[in-house]
Amino acid sequence: MSIRFFIRRVVVGEFLLSAIFLTGGLHAHDSPHDTIHKLSHRIESSPTNTALYYARAIEYKSLGKASHAVADFRTVLRIDPSNLNSTLALARLLAVQSKPDESFKLLDGRLKGAVSNESKARLLNAKSDIYFTAQQYQRSYDSVTEALSLVAKPSDDWYLQQAITNLQLGELIRRHQQLAIGFKKSASELLHYSWIDAKLDAGEGEAVKALILKYRAESRFSSTWNIRLAQSLPLESAERKQVLAEAIIEMNQRLNIDRPDVTLLMDRCLAYHLQGDLKRSKQDRQWIDRLKIQSFQVIWLDWKLQSPSVVE
Amino acid sequence: MMNRRIILTALSLLNAQSIMAAEVTRAPYLQLATSDSMQIVWRTDGATAPVVRFGTTMDNLDNSVPLADILVRMVAGKDASGYPLWQGEEAVSAPSNTVQYEARVTGLKPAERYFYAIYDKDKRITPADASYQFTTHPTIGSKKPVKFWVVGDSGTGGAMQKAVHEGMQKYMESSKLDFYLHVGDMAYRSGTDPEFSRNFFNMYEPTLRNTVCWASMGNHEGQTSSGETQKGPYYDAYVLPTKAEAGGLASGTEAYYSFDYANTHFICLDSHDLDRRPLGAMAMWLKADLQKTKADWLVAFWHHPPYTKGSHDSDREQQLIEMREHIMPILEGSGVDAVFTGHSHIYERSMLIDGAYATPSTNQGVVLDDGDGDPKGDGAYKKSAGLAPHNGTVQVVTGHGGTGLRRKSNHPLMSKVIMLHGSMIMEIKGDKLTGEMIDVHGAVLDTFVIEKGGKVTRSIVENPRAPKLIEPEPKAKSSKPHSMPKNYSNVIPRGATWHYLAGAKLHPAKGWASAPFDVSDWKLGAAGFGYSDKDDKTELDMKNKYSAVYIRKEFTLEAGTDFSALGLGVSYDDAIIVYLNGIEVVRRGVDSGAGSKAKGFHTHEAGKLEYFPLGANKKLLKPGVNVIAIEGHNAGIGSSDFSLDPVLILKN
C-alpha cells in the first residue's frame, strides 16, 4: 500500500465540533482560498483559538497543501494536546510523509489519556492503518480488532480493514467469520457481499452459490454476480465459461474506454484472469496502475490474480 | 440514527409534572417515507405523553401509533427517572431539556393520503389543519409521476432563503410536492442544533409538516456532524434509510443511502467527510446499488459539485475533483440521468454530457447535446429508454437557495448559468424528466427536458456552444432609476387609454412601433397593464400563457415645445423596451432581441414610477402626432405578477 492511500483517509471524520467556536466573519460563499485568508487574519487577533487553526488546516488539505495542514494541526495540539480530531489528522498526515514513528508516538500518547471507548477506537483504527502501511499485519489486525470491540456501530471501513489484514495473514476462514459479524451489526449489503467474496476465497463457494444466483436474478447488471458465480463452479464447466463470457460482454458495454469506472475495470481484470486470458487481465491490471488507485480492493485483486486456484 | 424501538411502557408511569410544562420546540415533520410507512418527528422541551393519530380523512383520525413504535430520544446524562419512555437513545446535540419523538406510522397503503395529529396525552398539539398530512410512496416500480423540489445552500435564516421558499410555493400554488431534496448547507454557519432549528426547521415548517425532505450533508453541517460516527445535529435531525427501508440497497449508514419512488431510483452520497475513492466503501456500495436497481430513471445528489465555476472551482478543490474523477464514472456507467449538487453558490445547469472526468474540465469530446434542452428552444435532450450506460447526464448546481451568490467564470460544460436566487422543481412523468429553475417570484428562468425512448446512439458534439449567462441587472450608473421630476406636465397621463396586444403567441407585425400602423385589431385598455399585484387597471390573463405585452399610443407635441424636456415615467415588472416613433430609446431587463426574439430577461419589481429622460432623443420627435410604443416582458411565463404602467411627461 502506498503513501497516497493514506492521504485520502485524513479527511475522513475529522471535523466534528471544531466549528462551534468559530464566531462570525466567515462568509458562507467563500472558496477555500478566501476562507484561508480570512482565517489567517482572525488568527492574528486570536492566536490561541484552536478551532481557527483546525479549520484552516482542513482548508489547506482540500487544496492539497499537506505541509501547511501539518503545521496547523501541530499548533492545535500545542495549545490543546487532548484534541482528538487534530491528533488523528496529524498522525495520518505524518504517515503520508513517511514518519510512522512520529505517528505512533502521537497516537500512543493520546491513547493513554483517552477516556471514551469511541476515542480509543478511533485512535486504534488509525494505528491499524499505519501498521498496515508498514506491512506489520498482525499488529494492524490486533489494533483494528480491538477498535471494533470498543464501539457498538463501527464503520464498514473498519470491518473491511480487518478483512484485508486477515487476508494478508492467510486467515481466510476468520476473515469470512468476522465479516459475517460485521454484516449482522451494520446491515450493510457491502459487508454481506464482501462476506460472499470471503467465502469464495476460502474455497467455500458451494455454500454461497444459491445466494449468488438469487442476487444475480435481482440485479439489472449481472457481471459482478456472474464473476462470483464462476468462482463457485468447477474450472472446466461450460457454465463457468458461459457466465464469464456474459460478464465480459456486459462490462465492455458499460466501460468508458477513455476514463473507465475502476470498479468495473477491476471486475474485468479478474474475469479475464478466471477465463485464463492472462494477457488481457495483465493489461487491465496495468491500466489500474496507471490510474494510481490504491485500495484494499486492489490488494485483494492482486491476491486473486496470484492465487493458483483461479488460473485455468 | 438508531432504529431500535422502545419497549412499550405503561403510560401511567409518566411524571405528570413534567408533562404539564412541555412545549413543542421543533414542529412535526415527515421523514423516511415508504410505500407502507411514514416517520413523524417532533420535539418538546420536556417530557410528554406522545400520541399520534392518523386517518384517511381529516375528521376521522381513528388510528393511532402504538407507543412501541415511538422512539424517544433525550440528551445523554439526563435524569430521566420520571420518564420511563426513554430507553437511553440519545439526541446528542439537543438542548438539555429536549425530548425528540420519532413515530413510525406503519400498515399504510401505497400512494395514499393520510391526515395526522400529534397529542400530548389528550391535549392536541397540532392544530386541526388539513396541511398536517402525508402521502405514502407509490409501489416501487409503478409508473406514477413524481414532482419534487431541489434546493441547496439555503440555511441562512435570512430573507433570501424565505423568498426562495415562497417562490417555490407561488409556483406550486395549490399543487403538492411529492418530496424534496436538500443538497446540503441547510444550517449555516456550523450546523449546530439551534442553527438547524432556526434556519431549517422554522424556515421550512409549512412544507416540512407534509413533505419529506431527503437530505445530504453539506460542509457546514459537517463542522458539527460526522459521517463516520453518524453523530451530531444533522444525524439527530434526520431519519434516513440504512436497511433499504425505502428501496435500493442497504448501506448500513445514514451518511449515504438510496430510495425508490415509483420507477425512479434516488441516490444520496456523502461528498464531505467520507472516503470518496473509487474503491472505498461508499463507492463500492454505490456500484452494488446501481447493479441492483431496475428503475427507469436515476437521480443522484450530494453536496460538492463535480462541475462548477461559481463560488467554488471544481478544477482546484479536492472533494469536487474526487467526486468527478472517481464517482461520476460509476454513475454514468450505470446510466444516471441527473445529478444535483450545491456548495457553489450559483445556478449552473449543464448540457447533456458524458465522460467529463478530466481535470481541468474541458468541453471537448464529452458533450452529447449542446442545445439548451428546452422543448421551446433547441429541443429536449434525447436518451434511450431505461437506464442506458453513458447515454448522457445533466448536472445541476443548485447552490442558489439563499446565501450570497458568486461566479468565478463560466464552466465550459454549462448550458445555463444564472446568478439569481432560486431552486429547482423536477417532474418525472412517463418518458419525460422536466427540470425548471424557479426564481424568488415563482418565475421559471430555465427549463430542460430529458426524453427517453427506443435506442438513442450518441455522438460527440465538436466545439459545443458557450453557456448562456443570466445575471441581475447591472448596477451601472445608466441603469440606476431616476425619481420623477418635481414639476412636470402630462403628455400622456397615468391611467390613460392605450392600444394593447396581449395573448398567447401574439406578437405585432413589423413596424408596430411606428406611425402609421393599423391597430384596428388591438384592444384598448387603461394603464397599468398586468396581473396579480393589485396595481393594474387592465387585468391580463398572462400567467402560464404568455410573457410579452405590447402597448402603443399616439401623442401630440405643439410646435415650439422643448422636446428635450420629454421624459417617461414607468412602473414595470420585469422588463421593457421603449420606442419613440419606431426607434428604440430605452431598454431595461432584456439582454438582446425584441418581441418574440427577446432574450435574457432580468427580474425587476414594480413600484414607484421610475423616470427615464428622453431629451437625448429629441431629434426623433416632431411637432404634431408622434408615437410611443412599449413592449413589456415577464422574466418567466409562470411569474407571479406583471406590471406595465407608463406616463409621458414634459419636465418644467
Can you describe what's shown?
The complex is a heterodimer of chains A (312) and B (652). Chain A has 312 residues and is an all-alpha fold. Chain A has helices spanning 3-7, 32-45, 50-62, 66-79, 84-96, 100-113, 117-133, 137-150, 156-169, 172-186, 189-201, 205-218, 223-231, 238-254, 262-275, 278-290, 296-306. Chain A has a domain at 236-312. Chain A has 17 helices and no strands. In chain A, helix 5 runs antiparallel to helix 6. Residues 1-29 of chain A have low confidence and may be disordered. Chain B is mainly β and 652 residues long. In chain B, a hairpin with a 6-residue loop joins strand 1 and strand 2. The termini of chain B are far apart. The interface between A and B is large, with 65 and 76 residues.
Nearest-integer average pLDDT of chain B: 90
| Euclidean distance between termini CA atoms of chain B | 72 Å
Report the count of strand segments of chain B. Answer: 40
Point out poorly predicted stretches of chain B: 1-20
Tally of structural domains of chain B = 3
Q: Based on CA inertia axes, which overall geometry of chain B fits?
A: globular
DSSP summary: helix tally of chain A: 17
Biggest beta sheet attributes of chain A: none
- How many beta-strand segments of chain A? 0
Just give the CATH class of the largest domain in chain B: Alpha Beta
Structural class of chain B comes to mainly beta
Q: From the coordinates shown, what is the CATH architecture of the largest domain in chain B?
A: 4-Layer Sandwich
What is the averaged pLDDT score of chain A? 86
Radius of gyration of chain B, rounded?
28 Å
Please identify the oligomeric state. Answer: heterodimer
| End-to-end Cα distance of chain A | 28 Å
What portion of residues of chain A belong to β-strands? under 5%
Largest sheet: spatial strand order of chain B: 13-14-15-16-21-17-22-26
